[in-house]
User: Fold Globoside alpha-1,3-N-acetylgalactosaminyltransferase 1-like from Silurus meridionalis.
Amino acid sequence: MRSGQNFCLFCLFITCLFLGFLYFSFTSPWFSHVLKCKPTVEEKKNDYTELIIPAGISYPQPSLSNSRPDIATTTRWLAPIVWEDSFDLAVIDNIYKPKNITVATTVFAVGKYVRFLKELIESAEQHFMVGYRVHYYIFTDLPDQVPDVKLGEGRHLTKIKTASSSRWQEISLRRMEMVEKLIEEELLNKADYIFSLDVDSKFYAHWGAESLGDLVGVLHAWLFSMSRHQFTYERRPESQAYIPIDAGDYYYGGAVIGGRLDKVLKLVKTCRMQLDRDRANKIEAVWQEESHLNKYFLYNKPTKLLSPEYLWDDRKEKPNFMKVVRFSQVVKNYAEIRPNP
Ligand SMILES: CC(=O)N[C@H]1[C@@H](OP(=O)(O)OP(=O)(O)OC[C@H]2O[C@@H](n3ccc(=O)[nH]c3=O)[C@H](O)[C@@H]2O)O[C@H](CO)[C@H](O)[C@@H]1O
Ligand SMILES: [Mn+2]
Assistant:
């Protein structure tokens, strides 16, 4: 009798122990970390800031002179401007590959713009972040027309059904709030970096980990060598995107926005709020969300700038300083493809 009772008590004890273990494994970050061997958020943060390179990697000694004397490779706030020959890809890959990062990549293909997806994704598979985990998020009103492109290892594609609009301006500027929602609801624990890309584009050459940074902007090909008063910033003080005529560093293209998730979240949230204010005041900035992006970057400087190699235009002739075109806007018939003029 007594031994039966003891046995029952023992079983109860074991059950409690098991349930307790289950509870802690679900709720305690320490437990889940130990069990799944996953880095905690804090450890991931350190992982980002530290540029650790394994011992035994040999590469050429860095030069003491500027490898690109023909063009500026840093900003006045000492952020790098990425040009061909301004980086050693072997060094960069040896630092970033062991971090095992995932790059979320958002692309909007609404209405007739779905036709650009095939070439964009096929060329991305050849050139974009090859050797890294990439997850494409395709926002479209026509999910059935998203082409079936064979993706490499570690690369995924998710379609997200999106509403269309009768105005192309609306489709373009709504990207800010959609990316905001995606990061908040989906990506914070799934990806490390994000790039938002225009769909009417194609990769022509390598685009890799040299492009990664906390907050990344791209220099617009057409406005690259102009003076600031010629930049097509929003000039009406009534708009939240207003930039005075004597201010501005560069003109950034809206077709490429990138960086760490938390930094890009702050950017898209701020721009979305400024777009909402403009809407309430019945004003639309001259270049929609691109104008708000330029305002944001004026006061929140990007930590890395991509040269126009990373956002060229197929219609544009290449000057001498352009040693390579990596990503470029394809030629399109605006009148035929957009829902409105
Ligand atoms: C090279 C560059 O920096 N381009 C920017 C520029 O003109 P773009 O002429 O490049 O604008 P665009 O017509 O390519 O529209 C921007 C993007 O919105 C999406 N879209 C647009 C219309 C449509 O019917 N369906 C659709 O899916 C698509 O992803 C497209 O790539 O200014 C726009 C805002 O005015 C955006 O900031 C673009 O990024
Ligand atoms: Mn475009």
User: Anything to note?
Assistant: The longest helix spans residues 2-27. The mean pLDDT is 91. DSSP finds ten helices and eleven strands in the chain.
